[in-house]
Amino acid sequence: MSRFTMKELAKAYDAKQYEADIYKRWEESGFFDPGVCVEQGITKKNAVPFCIIMPPPNANGSLHLGHALYCLQDIMARYHRMRGEPTLYLPGADHAGFETQVVYDKKLEKAGRKRSDIPRADLYREIWDFTQSNKQVMEQQLRQLGMSCDWSREKFTLDPDIIKTVYATFKRLYADGLVYRENRIVNWCTKHQTTLSDLEIKHVERQDPLYYIKYGPVTLATIRLETKFGDTAVAVHPKDKRYRALLGKDIEIQTLLGKTKIKVIADEAVDPEFGTGAVKVTPAHDPNDFEIWKRHEKEIPGPKPVIDQYGRMDLIEYWPDNPAAKKYHGLKVLEAREVMAADMQAAGLMEKVDSSYAHNVATCYKCGNIVEPRILPQWYIRMTAKPSSENPKSLRDLAVEAVKKGEVKFIPKSMEKTFMQWMKNLRDWNISRQIVWGIRIPVWYCKNAKCKMQNAKFGVMVSIDDIKDCPDCGGEVEHDSDVFDTWFSSGQWPFAALGYPEGKDYKEFYPTSVMETGWDILFFWVARMIMLGLYATGEVPFRHVYLHGLVRDRDRQKMSKSKGNVIDPLGVIGQYGADALRLALVVGNTPGSDILISEEKIKGYRNFANKVWNISRFVLMRLDAAMVYDGAFTPSNKREEEIIAALKTITKQVTTHIDQFRFYQAAEDLYHYIWHEFADVIIEEQKPRLDGPEGKQAQKLLLHLLAHSLKLLHPFMPFVTEAVWQSVPMKEKRLLMVERWPH
What we know:
Blueprint: H1 15-29, H2 34-39, E1 50-53, H3 71-82, E2 87-90, E3 92-93, H4 97-110, H5 120-144, E4 155-156, H6 160-175, E5 179-189, E6 194-196, E7 201-215, E8 218-222, E9 233-236, E10 250-255, E11 258-266, E12 278-281, H7 287-295, H8 323-328, H9 333-346, E13 350-364, E14 374-381, H10 395-404, E15 409-411, H11 414-424, E16 429-430, E17 432-433, E18 443-446, E19 457-458, E20 477-479, E21 483-484, H12 486-490, H13 493-497, H14 504-509, E22 512-518, H15 522-537, E23 542-548, E24 551-552, H16 569-576, H17 578-586, E25 595-596, H18 599-621, H19 638-659, H20 663-690, H21 695-713, H22 718-725
Parallel strand pairs: 1-2, 3-4, 9-11, 15-23, 22-23, 24-25
Antiparallel strand pairs: 5-6, 5-14, 7-8, 7-13, 9-12, 10-11, 14-16, 17-21, 18-19, 18-20
Helix pairs in contact: 1-22, 10-15, 16-17, 17-18, 18-20, 18-21, 19-20, 19-21, 20-21, 21-22
């Protein structure tokens, strides 16, 4: 970047002429690296390190407007760097397992290809190339936003050292009895062919028929008529007098496949007010029914799956020679429901139908398809179990205790209550995913039935294929085909990215200072980082959690392509400049609340960038040729004393606001001070003095106010302030990004 001179300041600020060159100058200076700042004396001795790790954006596409909120992280990094603190802003990218595979599936569909037709290794390699290409694009976009992160330390969640750390944590969890494999009912997406965690389920209200069907002497209500082939019992509440005479008895019922018998059991989970107070128990296809079966497995038969992984009826296994079963076999769930309803009406097995019953339905958060519960062997983490008498705190206990003690503080504080409520109802976490893209679960199974091995054995492996033969019997082994839930690996992001346990950065910067992210992933990610960070390292992963809201348009509508209200951050930057977008996203953005953004708002802050430029141009062009700024100013009259006092007040206010995470207030105060106080009042007052005998004193005053203001504004609007700073006459001048924060 060439040094700008006073004569080169154009009449208007054109961001496109300066931003790329300025960022290149920042990056080439090496000052994004805290080590370079120490070597060159930028950093104060014995200063407390500041570290913020970027929430890694998914490497499956371009950045969206929500990613532009990373400017909040950059404000903190730039501020603490100017305070003389060793500052590490570490960038990264997320392989984003399921999310990325969904994106790549769409790419394959457009090309007329199917994921199932591609060998695993080939598919993995294709997605790897896809993410690496996207990652390079994202890195450039982050540069355009002005992120002052240390690119030499950039991490990817599939880097070998990250995988090694993830495996080590998994192995330790297993050794502590906190990881187990079990056949349990799970959320299954029939489109994407994988399990989903409870947090990946979106519950939507729908209206469906509520069928009242006859089961011998009992009438019961159900929505999921198609699962009746898998019924293993009828359940009622133990205090329901209506069914007391039937408890423990087998009743004969007529079904679409013929006569059979089914037992009536009592369970307190049954709501006597729902329907008739009697419900069918289908443990293979309903999580509540699965739990009922677990409590009564000595009384009733086990689960009987009658729906396959693709959401179609699968009856031939149980009724291979039943002609009626063949009628329904292979039908999709909703098709089978309609056909069965008509057939039951015709056979007199339907008492009545409530055609508009409102209820919540579990759907996949990505495709919107109804989730089909299935029983599968999966890997789970115990969230509430105590590892041992020597280590009596569960993962949940560790996190809750840390928050209660104030070791982790939420901004806004109200999110602490939300966090505690979720932790109270925590269930074991299914970390298995049936996809190709991600970190393979490092488990192998011996295929020799006579092997003495009782449990799956695994180890921390450089490659998933390290173990070829069973160490116990020498027999052939097969490796687990599942991958970890992305949130399991990203839940270790703070300590893994810093090189736990022996890395220099880990020793210097962990725990990190702040985790800044969206409130919508408080449970997906933040809570899990706290739990896994404490478990693995014994320390919290960060001291503060700043939770921003979702970006919405000026009418408070969620941005979507279908609504036509999406704002492309890179398009906006090209038109109005990065500084305008940054300030538009900061002003009015209170933590935890949704952010309202519009092109008009961004345009307004482009005008402010021009105002800063014009103020600077006026001040600098009125300086004597020999004028040099030495960082100090001595008032010569009462008015100047008032002006300097006001400057100290705004400096203290902005500093306090940033320290207390009120970035929105700091930015707004600076906006009003620079435009309405500095420009509208002080400059106008000083104009007559500039041409009189006190001209030099007036020049010094305005130059001092300008330099001071540029420093205060730099974390928020780094490009325009750096561009102007290059024209400030000084004997020894560094980049503004490493000038000392004013006081």
